[in-house]
Amino acid sequence: MDAMACFQAASAYSTRLAVRPLPLQSSKRSYSLCIRNVAATATQQESSSRDVSPKILLQVQGLTASVADSNTEILKGIDLTIREGEVHAIMGKNGSGKSTFSKVLVGHPDYQVTGGAAIFKGENLLEKEPEERSHAGLFMSFQSPVEVPGVSNMDFLRMSCNARRAAQGQPELGPLEFYGFLSPKLAALNMAPTFLDRNVNEGFSGGEKKRNEILQLAVLEADLAILDEIDSGLDVDALRDVANAVNGLRKSSNAILMITHYQRLLDYIKPDFVHIMEQGQIVKTGDASLAKQLEAGGYQAIRGGD
Ligand SMILES: Nc1ncnc2c1ncn2[C@@H]1O[C@H](COP(=O)(O)OP(=O)(O)OP(=O)(O)O)[C@@H](O)[C@H]1O
């Protein structure tokens, strides 16, 4: 298994396989002063608005990051606050940094955080290893989910589920119990039970891989799901199934961060906030109407409205 496959397995699936992900350059850096400030701000906002606003799940402030190998700066100061119950969509031209942002959040080893802070559920996210981020309740569905040869989907899902349960101090689910837990989730995604016997993503079509990603999300019951272009490559029925399944997972205590190019996904999963990313920064934030404006007039119309 290569480093990318290993990373995805460790982070998205919340468990360690035989091979560890590469060490994180980013997580070892010290941002203690900055982190303290952001954490203090989050706490102040929390206490001053405790009775009116839902809790902050993720607070990102001034986040900068570069490609680890080349030091090329990609993220140039991202600010974003996500509260429980919210759906955020990030849109932006190709190459604006959307996927890099989500990968940096889950601790991808290709990137090095060079400044700023990210606080998740009150803790410094950037200090955590990928699997710790996953155990803490962060999930990312990848644009290109990896295949994991030799491991059945069922075993993988159960391992992932039990790894998260163990991290939360909950007892493991045995095979029968787990099947009972899994069956309704499989049905919600219109996935045949035969997918459980196949190796993870091996030979799956693009759409089947995307459904499988959402099945993993359902199993992990993440607090913050980062969905990177889950609509790409889906036929109309699959898009509806996937979106319905995601909507079925929404609770007042969790949140979704979606990356998409198209309004069609947002017709199903309605965003509270739409952010436009450009050259590694969020340059505009609005409500769902911003995506409609974008669909109608392109990026020029959006920037022209500044
Ligand atoms: N590992 C890497 N090595 C070199 N360049 C990278 C790497 N990762 C990202 N980049 C560059 O960073 C920029 C942002 O890429 P990113 O994938 O985050 O964009 P995006 O907004 O998600 O694009 P798209 O909409 O096409 O998926 C691009 O110019 C890309 O080539």
From TrEMBL:
Q: Which CDD domains match?
A: ABC_FeS_Assembly
Lineage, top-rank taxon, reads Eukaryota
Keyword Chloroplast listed: yes
Gene Ontology MF annotations: ATP binding; ATP hydrolysis activity
Which PANTHER family does the record match to this protein? Answer: ABC TRANSPORTER I FAMILY MEMBER 6, CHLOROPLASTIC
What protein is this chain from? ABC transporter domain-containing protein
Pfam assignment, any one: ABC_tran
Q: What are the entry keywords?
A: ATP-binding, Chloroplast, Nucleotide-binding, Plastid
Q: Which NCBIfam families match?
A: sufC (TIGR01978)
Sequence ranges assigned to domain ABC transporter in this UniProt record: 58-304
Kindly list the residue ranges recorded as spanning the membrane.
none
